[in-house]
Every structure is written in structure tokens, then in C-alpha cells.
Protein: D-2-hydroxyglutarate dehydrogenase
Organism: Gossypium darwinii
Amino acid sequence: MEKWRATTNLRRSLKSILNRQLSSVSEFRYLNGKRSCQSSFNLIRDCKSLGQVNAIQHRCFSSASTLVQRNPSFSTLNSDDISYFKGLLGEKSVIQDEDRLETVNTDWMHKYKGSSKLLLLPRSTEEVAQILRYCNSRCLAVVPQGGNTGLVGGSVPVFDEVIVNVSSMNNIISFDKVSGILVCEAGCILENLISFLDNQGFIMPLDLGAKGSCQIGGNVSTNAGGLRLVRYGSLHGNVLGLEAVLANGDVLDMLGTLRKDNTGYDLKHLFIGSEGSLGIVTKVSILTPPKLSSVNIAFLACNDYSSCQKLLMEAKRKLGEILSAFEFLDTEAMNLVLHQLDGVRNPLPASMHNFYILIETTGSDESYNREKLEAFLLSSMEGGLISDGVLAQDINQASSFWRIREGVPEALMKAGAVYKYDLSLPVEKMYDLVDDMRIRLGDLATVVGYGHLGDGNLHLNVSAPEYDDKILEQIEPYVYEWTSKHRGSISAEHGLGLMKANKIYYSKSTETVQTMASIKKLLDPNGILNPYKVLPHSLNS
């Protein structure tokens, strides 16, 4: 029965596509001696039988099965292409080794896997420009890649796209101690930047659990949020400028270091969060705040979600300018961390609680800030908002608290199959979805809720021993419909990638998406940059 339904739906989808594109034909033209690709294609030729269509059905376990067809307008690699890239980059930067390709073709959660035959490692913006100029002339599709820590399939190929990894572009260009402005290349690992700035007496406004692997170019391209957004805001506010290479090889130098610049359109924002679909970010200038001497962390327990909400409101009022993080996790998340990760201990061992809150404050006056936090905690406990809690006494204890919160994704991976959803919702509604999903799934799976309560970002995770279509059918599209109904976003900070490209309409209007597609067409007419991602596949074809 299930097989029949899937086949029927597939045929229905094909019929709809064929009705729209029956007369389209593959077309290649040569302009000035160079091959130019058209996005139209002939589905009659490429989809002669249902069996052939099934062969190109892209299956990913974090989202419903998606029919993705390789755009036949894209060329395939040949020996001349390899020779060109070796002449440009040198043999060591042109990777065809199968073991290394296996790694870069697969996302870190092992859910998405491409079949690229080529990894390029440029060392400069000019090399990136020449790579894209050549690929655009040949209609070779490209996937920009950094640390490959994404969760939605945005940083790995879908088919045989050329992987352009900027990890070799990892230089810090300049740092101004007066203004706190850092200029660096896109391949700099976030943790290395954090260490560099720490030695200078500054901090990165961005902090992520994946900081040991993720790169600043990827952070900017996905508009990564992280643990301290409640204090320092998003990268749209902290990135002062960037350099990006367009699909045709043109370099946009927007690497400004000014806090104020109202000269025309602020184009850098198009590249912050566009996931490499409009251009490859090669350099970034970012405003970094000074490192403050007083950092305090409290790990607290609450009886119910209502208390968590009230505690957040009180923290904003009473801690104000020193509040730098407000994270939450439920008892299911805590259980997973304690059972799956070695060396992690419960800071509140007397009993398990329904909810846990991690609060971080940063300021310049240790005694004043600590007294302020202790007074807040005391009043919150007297008011019944906190059922238990502990204040870190040293850096080791503080690190152990953060290890619990940052360790949830790792614990989920070790527990088995996991379906991950990164959602923005009104704070008062966030946990309602978790409760609804537990009722909906029953004993089929474990539903885990945690995230950045301070900025309304829920990480909804469904954990099971193995991936199961029955579970997925209960999750999707229900999660997206629920989020849309409550005027939330289906992607708070992870991006859309391949997983959610076709789901964008749950969060954006048709007119908005069409405008995005027009911008994509303007900046990347041949559609070679990160194809099949971000925008609906019907608009990418």
C-alpha cells in the first residue's frame, strides 16, 4: 500500500512538471567561443520511464524524500578541466583521491552524500575568481565548502558538483585594537579566531558548539546564530564588510571597516545567509567586542516551561546589560547527555528536573556583577521560578556546565537516528510544539527540546534507534505546518540547504521567493553556485 501511494504521488508530481515543461528542450549555445548553458531541459528525454526517475530520487533521512534531478544543462568533468585546474592551483590543490573525496562528499551527520569527483583548494581570492570564471564558461556546477559542519545538506554536493573548499585561505589580515575590527580570510576556523582575539583582549560575537571545525566564511554564508546572540546580535549586525566572488569570476570588494556607510545599497547582506548560492565569500571584516573581566555562569532547574519563560523575563529586567546567554534543555536532553557522553556529570545530582537553564553574564566589575546575579537567583528561588541551582566557582566548573549544553547534538548522534529541526517561534509557544510531537509520536521515538530561549530558537530533535519512514510521516509536514501557523521560521540559524529548499514557502510569501529567484538569476545566470539548495527546485530548474 505504501509503495503504491509513493508511486502514485511520484507520477502525479511528474505529470505536473511535464505539463509545465513539456516543450522545453536542452539547449547549448556557444558565445565568443565559450559554451553557455540554458536552464531549460527536456523531461521526456530524461524521464522516459518511472524506473529512471526513481534512480535520481534523492533520499535524505532528515526530511521527506525529495525528487531532485541533475540539471542536464551542467557539464561533466573531463581531462581538460582537470589539466586547467592543476595548471592554476598546482597538483596538490587538485584532489581526486577517493578517500578524501568520500569525506568532503558527506556531511558530518552522514545524511547527505554527493558524488563529486573533484575537490579544489584555492589559496587566494584570485584563484577562487579564476575557478569560478572557468566553471561558469564550462557550465560546471560548484559547491562552496568550509568546515562542512552544516545540518541541512548545504555544504556537500547533490550530484557531481565541483567542491571549492576555502580552508587553505585561513590568514588573519588585520586587527585594530582601537575599534576591535578584525579582517580575515574565509577559511579561518572560528575557534582559532576566538583564541587570537582572546590574546588581544577581545572576543568573537559568535560562539558555536562546532567552533573547532566551522569556518568564518561558512558562518557568514549561513548567518550562524549561536550561543550569545541574545547579547551581541546576529552577523547581519556584526559583519561590517566582506569580499565575495560571483559566479562569473567578478570580485565584489565590500570589505569595509566602517561602522557607518550609507552610500547606496548595502549588498553585503545578500551574501550573509545566502549559503553560497549567490557568491563565494572570501574575506570578512567583523566587529568584535572587548573581553570583559567578569564572567559568571549559573546552571538552574525549573519545574515547568512557564517558569522558564518567567525566568527569562526576569533575567532581562534584572540582569539587563550583563546577560550574555540564556539557554534551555529539557529532561530528555539532559538524560541523553548524561548517558551518551563520557565524563559529564549532573551539576544538580539530587534528582532529575523537567527543565534546565544555563545563564551566563559578562561584565567589567566582578563583585558588582556577581552580587547582581546572586540577588537575581535568590529572588527567583524565593519566587518559585527556580527549584534548584548552582553557580560556577571556577573556569573548570563553568566549562562543565557549557559542556552539557553544547554536548546535546553529540549525544543525539551517539543515541542513534535523529531528525533535527531548527525553528524560530514565539517564546511562549516554543515548547507547545515539543509536547504536541510527543503526543503525536507516542512510543515511536523520543522527542527532545533544547535551544536558545533568549532569542526564541527551538532545536526540536526526534531520536530513534534507526531511521523509519513511519516516524518521518508523523513529523513532516506537521512540524512545518505548525511553525507556519504560529508565524515562526522553519530555519532559525541552520539555513535551508537541500533539506528545506522546497519548504521555504512555509516561512516566506510567493512574492518574496520570486524576488529571491530574480536576484539569484541576476548574480548567477547559469545557476552554477550551490544548485538545488536554498530556493525551491522548481525555481532552480
About this structure: The chain is about 35% helix and 20% strand. Residues 327 and 453 are 5 Å apart (CA to CA).
